[in-house]
Amino acid sequence: MKIIVTGSLGNIGKPLTEILVAQGHQVTVISSDQKKQADIEALGATAAIGSIADVKFLTDIFMGADALYAMVPLSMTEPDLGDYLRRMAQNYVQALEPAGIKRVVLLSGWAADLTRNENIEHVFSHLKISLTILRPAVFYNNFYQSIDLIRGKGLMGMFLTLRYSGLWALLSGKTGLLLGNYGGEDRIVFVSPKDIAYAVSEELLLHPETKTIRYVGSEEMTCNEAAKIIGTAIGKPWLKWVLLSDKEMLRGLKMAKVPEKLANTLVEMQAAMHSGKALENFHRNNPKMGKVKLADFAKEFARDYHKNS
């Protein structure tokens, strides 16, 4: 099959490309970074350097392909996150219609249907294609955004860090605390990007006649249990994930000069996880868990955490 992979060689894109190439597929990887071309070609794939903001570029690349893995990277420079995501999703739709691709796997999020402003799924829904929407839970890799803050080098007070896939947290480097408007004893499903990549590779080879939704997770636990696993791996077993109120979280985002509409969207996304609604949806769909556990990831995280520390 001729398969298009978006997202460059990111957390999902790289392992997905490796899987698909190993299966013998003809893979084209879209990246906005010219420097990634050699790395993409080294994996046995074809590099297409350009932006998903360019509809003509997408249309040209999509021509003749059998299947597409589509994702929209988050942008924290956009004041209206929902509007940005919908615009990028519409670019895909405009390119897909003339290109004739019949199979699409779309990366979404496990709380996407619980928020008002982030959902891009409906943009694809009217297309007459075989569509699977993937709703992965909270990425293990989000912890990487916290390395410098957890180390506490030169930090004063509270700091804000972006978490991929809509996860935000406040971190105190001096006390070794994770904070957000979900956390503490809230039960959350975490997921390895490797397990997501495996799920994508499975779905790309299927051709359901109607739209399907697949939730993807690797392990379920409380936020404090996750913090303890990460903390133990790096020598800080006391690491806690403290729960803030929505108002406290919103105030912290505003203090960090996050645009008001974006701040409200981020708080809403986390509130859906704190309420348990995201977990209810996950359980209702009863997906099979992936193979990579948080303890496995924590070993990799610890190596990076202690590197140059």
Short summary:
By secondary structure, the protein is α/β, with parallel strands linked by helices. It contains 12 helices and 14 strands. It folds into 2 domains: 2-137 and 192-216, Rossmann fold, CATH 3.40.50.720; 140-188 and 219-278 and 292-306, UDP-galactose 4-epimerase, domain 1 (Alpha-Beta Complex), CATH 3.90.25.
How is the secondary structure organized here?
Elements: E1 2-5, H1 13-22, E2 26-31, H2 37-42, E3 46-49, H3 55-62, E4 67-70, H4 81-99, E5 103-107, H5 121-125, E6 130-136, E7 138-139, H6 147-151, E8 159-162, E9 168-172, E10 177-180, E11 187-191, H7 193-204, E12 212-216, E13 219-222, H8 223-234, E14 240-243, H9 246-255, H10 260-274, H11 277-285, H12 294-306
Parallel strand pairs: 1-2, 1-4, 2-3, 4-5, 5-6, 6-12, 7-11, 10-14
Antiparallel strand pairs: 8-9, 9-10, 11-13
Task: Characterize the structure shown.
Residues 7-118 form the NAD(P)-binding domain. The protein has 309 residues and is of the alpha/beta class. The chain folds into two domains: 2-137 and 192-216, NAD(P)-binding Rossmann-like Domain (Rossmann fold), CATH 3.40.50.720; 140-188 and 219-278 and 292-306, Alpha-Beta Complex (UDP-galactose 4-epimerase, domain 1), CATH 3.90.25.10. Helices cover 40% and strands 20% of the residues. The protein is built from twelve helices and 14 strands. Strands 3-2-1-4-5-6-12 form a seven-stranded parallel sheet. A hairpin with a 4-residue loop joins strand 9 and strand 10. Helix 1 (13-22) crosses helix 7, helix 8 (223-234) crosses helix 12 and helix 9 (246-255) runs antiparallel to helix 10 (260-274). It is globular.
